[in-house]
Design goal:
6 helices; mainly alpha; 70% helix
Length: 97
């Protein structure tokens, strides 16, 4: 069940632990969602496979994306920051009303 996907102690005692080499918290959460809720639509599956194939084929571009692009986001939690901004905006709007 779910323990096989994300169980264990966060190491490699689960499928998530083995596969998770994500550099950002957002990437780790996306991987967990993908494992818990795999795609079932063939077109979406093929799109994801094509994206992965391009990253595999272009190792230099992939490494630059990881190191220079995503590397600058390491330690930042973009999802949580976005949620906070939305909540702050809503609170400010409610105060105006």
């Amino acid at each position: 069940g779910a323990a096989l996907i994300t169980g264990g102690n966060g190491g490699n005692n689960s499928l998530f632990g083995v596969l998770n080499h994500c550099k950002t918290k957002m990437g780790s959460r996306a991987l967990e969602v993908w494992l818990r809720q795999p795609l079932v639509d063939l077109n979406q599956i093929l799109r994801r496979q094509n994206a992965v194939a391009k990253l595999v084929e272009n190792g230099i571009g992939r490494d630059r994306l990881r190191d220079e692009g995503l590397g600058t986001l390491r330690g930042l939690d973009i999802d949580r920051l976005g949620y906070r901004l939305i909540a702050t905006g809503r609170a400010a709007k409610e105060e105006e009303e």
